[in-house]
Specification:
Chain lengths: 306, 357
């Protein structure tokens, strides 16, 4: 890499560095965005903030590990399997844990999802074959890189970006054209009105939890080559919070944008600022954004009625 | 069944409502005062932690239980208190000065955190305090010259008036005295106009501001007082543990602190003490239960599972917490045989949207 910089001169080297960091940042930001998307889907529909989203992602990655390494399934089957199992887990969580506290203060519900996170993390370390070790799943896109005029682009990062884009497009089409998607939108806009229109609001809420958990599983699989699979990988969910908040908690495009912002800022901070700033960059950004826009950049503002 | 017949306005202001309360609090006080004689070393250590966490619980209860502001960053105030105490003691400051500074500095930090709270609501406030906690943890880890970084720092025993409190019993009386002082301060605060303003803000911000409660002033004050109490708890914690390092004051500590409030019962000062006792006893129960696990499973996960399950089950089945359970038991005995199942059921709650419709 050093040789390439010498040939193209210092001015361009800075630019090349920057581009490279941007791609790395966007790629990591995509994973944040996917986890944040899970938060936002649930929040929009049920006004519940799911602190267990990161742990659901971790659980999804472990299911992927099971099907990929232990059962030897191909990559695409692994993705489908993990997403399907996690959808079931998500629906079950909603039915068993969240529905009894429907309508309680937001804080109560937050605490209950924190409890769910603890349980998931604990169970994963106790399951035989999963435990506390670190694992890796084989991916079809290995260590190849593309060179584009001095910029070295790892194929893996590009795949993450591409797959996120595809998932977002798929979700867009789902929400725009399918009956269930439209029902979910209606539920998230006004539960009572949706109920009057004949939408089974509770069942739709359950499905939204399933969808959100499936998206989390997808994020976990994409993240697996970067951080590997271990029982604490769910803490990345804590980074996805700032992402969701920066975008405004109720906005799907906001979540994607927020994730990208946090990813890029983190990549840049890790390179240009002294050590230590990388880990807090996301939180500094979220504090600054909250001071300027108290409910996120794309958040809905308005007065609460008494 | 006891009827309290009030004949005097002074009766509303009394610390104890009736003779029974006087008797039972007297028994409790005597038991606690005599603890060094009846409790072994192990129980004494647990009692220290219960008292320290109770002080922190009071602080968090004022903020979350009475003012209705969520904080997922109280471990940061604990850290500020602990490090202030440790550093000032190393400088040779007397204990009274160092613990007061710990409280005041924590309160100052609390005001800084409280400022965004004026604009943020609900979940956004929770995230802001969470972000603040992560930042403080990182600062304590990186400010090597002051805090010793990740290697942590050692804290010596407390010295009051040039006299070192080295035995467990001496330190226990210090904790006990401070806990009682904090409890009385909280009780008094809550029956003052300030306390009533806090409760009004919790119940409805809009109504409170219509009734002339200055939201900015009282919210900031709630953060400052809560942080000060947590700072005192942090100072005692530093002395008790004897070694402080940044990872003791991470997000998990914050969640544990908020769990004290939830398990004890949101909105009851008694709940803070009960919750603290529960949180201290829980790991001991879990370590006993570890023996029953089948071979080959990692026991480390059990603690997380039990902790999470306790949290979930409490919120679903006992939303008023341990103190709420006690109130129910007491009502059952007082009203026997007329206790009905639904007496403590909250009124039917509908989905309250925080969004604009």
């Amino acid at each position: 890499m050093a040789g390439a910089f010498c040939r193209i001169g210092p001015g361009r080297a800075v630019l090349v560095d920057l581009l490279q960091l941007l791609v790395a940042g966007v790629s990591l930001g995509c994973v944040y965005a996917l986890v944040a998307l899970g938060f936002v889907l649930i929040y929009k529909a049920t006004e519940t903030v799911n602190f267990a989203q990161g742990d659901l992602m971790m659980l999804g990655a472990f299911f992927a590990l099971t099907s990929s390494v232990m059962l030897g399934w191909p990559y695409w089957a692994t993705i489908l399997f993990a997403a399907a199992v996690m959808a079931a887990v998500g629906m079950l969580t909603e039915r068993l844990v969240l529905r009894p506290v429907l309508g309680h203060p937001a804080f109560t519900v937050v605490m209950i999802t924190i409890g769910v996170g603890y349980v998931v993390r604990g169970i994963v370390t106790m399951v035989p074959g999963w435990g506390t070790e670190t694992y890796q799943i084989p991916t079809p896109f290995v260590e190849d890189v593309w060179r584009l005029g001095g910029v070295v682009l790892p194929v893996q990062q590009l795949t993450v970006i591409g797959m996120t884009a595809m998932l977002c497009a798929g979700l867009y089409l789902f929400f725009r054209f399918s009956t269930l998607g439209v029902a979910m939108q209606a539920t998230s806009q006004n539960q009572l009105a949706a109920y009057y229109m004949g939408i089974p609001v509770r069942r739709v809420n359950m499905m939204i939890w399933g969808l959100s958990a499936a998206v989390a599983a997808f994020a976990g699989i994409l993240l697996a080559p970067v951080t590997f699979i271990h029982s604490n990988m769910g803490f990345i969910g804590l980074k996805a919070f700032p992402a969701a908040v920066v975008g405004g908690f109720g906005s799907v495009p906001g979540a994607i944008l927020g994730g990208l912002i946090i990813g890029v800022v983190e990549a840049l901070a890790g390179y240009y600022l002294p050590e230590g700033f990388k880990d807090v960059a996301a939180y500094v950004v979220v504090l600054v954004v909250l001071l300027a826009w108290p409910s996120g950049i794309f958040g809905e503002t308005g007065r609460k009625k008494v | 069944m006891r009827f309290i017949f009030k004949t005097d306005y002074e009766q509303d202001l009394r610390l104890f409502r009736h003779g029974g309360q006087k008797f039972w609090y007297g028994v409790l006080g005597a038991l606690l005062l005599a603890a060094p004689w009846w409790a072994g070393d192990y129980v004494m250590t647990q009692l220290h932690f219960v008292l320290i966490y109770s002080i922190v619980g009071f602080g968090l209860m004022l903020l979350t239980g009475f003012t209705g502001q969520i904080s997922l960053g109280h471990a940061a105030f604990l850290a500020v208190g602990a490090y202030t105490e440790a550093l000032l003691q190393a400088q040779g400051m007397p204990f009274v000065v160092s613990i007061t500074s710990a409280a005041l500095l924590s309160a100052a930090v609390g005001i800084i955190v409280g400022l965004p709270a004026l604009r943020l609501k609900g979940i956004y406030l929770a995230i802001a305090t969470l972000a603040f906690n992560v930042i403080v943890e990182e600062i304590t880890a990186r400010w090597h010259s002051l805090t010793g970084g990740n290697e942590g720092m050692l804290v010596k025993a407390v010295r009051v008036m040039g006299y070192a409190l080295e035995t467990d019993a001496q330190f226990y009386y210090l904790c006990l005295a401070l806990t009682v002082i904090c409890a009385l301060a909280c009780i008094n605060l809550l029956r003052s106009p300030t306390g009533r303003a806090f409760i009004a803000i919790r119940d409805s911000e809009i109504s409170a501001s219509c009734m002339g409660v200055n939201l900015a002033k009282y919210k900031t004050m709630a953060f400052a007082i809560s942080a000060a109490l947590t700072g005192v708890g942090g100072a005692l914690y530093a002395h008790k543990v004897g070694f402080i390092s940044p990872e003791q004051f991470g997000l998990f500590q914050s969640i544990e602190l908020i769990t004290i409030v939830i398990l004890g019962g949101v909105g009851f000062l008694h709940g803070a003490v009960l919750g603290a006792a529960f949180i201290i006893v829980l790991p001991q129960l879990i370590s006993i239960a570890k023996g029953w696990l089948p071979e080959g499973t990692a026991p480390s996960g059990l603690q997380a599972v039990v902790f999470g399950l306790v949290l979930i089950l409490f919120i679903i089945f006992e939303p008023l917490g341990l103190y709420g359970r006690w109130l129910k038991i007491r009502a059952w005995f007082e009203l026997f045989p007329f206790y009905r199942k639904g007496m403590f059921r909250r009124q039917k709650s509908y989905m309250k949207s925080e969004r604009l419709r």
